[in-house]
Structures are given as C-alpha cells and as structure tokens.
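Hi C.,

You asked whether I'd gotten around to modeling the 112-residue construct. I have! Everything is below, sequence then structure, no commentary in between.
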Amino acid sequence: QEGMICLHELISREEGIVEDIPRLRKYFKTKFRNRILDYIRKQESQKRRYDKEPYEEVGEISHRISEGGLWLDEYYLFHETLRDYRNKQSKDKQEELERVLRHERFRGRQRV
C-alpha cells in the first residue's frame, strides 16, 4: 500500500517518467526506500520519547489517585473491628477514641 502511494506521488510530480522505465525504477526505489526509513525513524523516535519519560513510584503519586471509598465487605470488616476494639477498652479509652474519630483536639491525642 505504501508502494502504491509512493508510485502515485512520483508519477504525479515527475513529467514523462512513465515512458522512461529505467529512470522510473531508480526514482521509485530511492523514494520508496527513503519513505520507509523515515517511517521507521519516526517510530523509533516515539519509542525513545516514551522510554525517556520519568518513572513515578505509585507511592509517590497515590495522593493523586481518587479514592472510591470502602467496598461493602471492607466497610463491614472495619466497623466490626472497631466495635470489638471499643468493647475491649475502658470507658475513658472509649471516650478518647470517640474524640479521635470526631477529629477533635485534646491533650493526649497522639498517644491514642
């Protein structure tokens, strides 16, 4: 297909080349070879450009990845674990935990 396009362009641009078969062969061979080499160079250039793009670690860009929230099973497991943890704590510890979950500031928050 590329050969047909190249031949059409050559016949359109060069006057009287159809009658001069040896000249047509030389011109076509050169033009077609150059066209293919240009196409290959262009592909290699694009590949090099992609290879040179900086690699970003997922951990470094994870803040940019949107969170869809918890799946239903994760949500259930989270609340079950939280409930079990609360039941094991004393009343004072339970109150501190509730304040942490409400994002309140208080002395000793970091310890909790």
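If it helps when you're writing up: The chain has two domains: 2-51, 69-112.

Thanks,
B.
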